[in-house]
Amino acid sequence: MVPFSFASETFEATPSGALFWRARRALLVADLHLEKASWFARFGQFLPPYDSHATLTDLATEIERSGATRLYCLGDSFHDAFGCDRLPAKARALLTELTASLDWTWIVGNHDPGFADHCGGLIEDEVELGGVILRHEAIVGEPRPEISGHFHPKFRVHVRGRHVSRRCFVVSPSKIIMPAFGALTGGLDAHHPEILRSVGSDAAALVPVSDRLLRFRLAA
Q1: How many domains does the chain have?
Q2: CA separation for the pair 44, 50 (Å, rounded)
Q3: What is the pLDDT of residues 6-36, one digit of tens each?
Q4: The CATH number of the domain where 28 resides is what?
């Protein structure tokens, strides 16, 4: 995990797209999109049905590595409001084990409105923690420090004749937009006008790689 400062606090970013707030022992993730494959299967588009277990396994690894006691999922945790009901037994067992072992909060996103608690944890529209607002989608003009998800930002570069894409955190003095943590999620280019409009001026893409945090200035 690589530390950086935001809102006078220290956060640690991981290449998988998680954010650890050590002072609060809180792990933040966004856009798990659990049961996305089963949602597509209902409409005849068949994808490998292992996305939820892969995502939850990665999440369990980050929880163990960080020593977090609190976890906040910043919306679109399920691909739809009934995703929890479709979880395979193995994935459900892992998820309920995790929610029972931590102070777990689901923040509702646009993909999972009306999400009901069948998997453990507390459901909130948004959370204020230590003066920082945790919500699914950034609100333009929000005066308080804010951490959100929704856009699945990725930083794309052209290196040695090929395109390289990596999860990234988009950061400005007052906002962080987190990458998608889910195993079966796409991504929006960090330079996209909607992302830049949401974070405001003086934004950068932070790409965690191993023991370093690469910073790239984002210009409108």
Answers
A1: 1
A2: 17
A3: 999 999 999 999 999 999 999 999 999 887 6
A4: 3.60.21
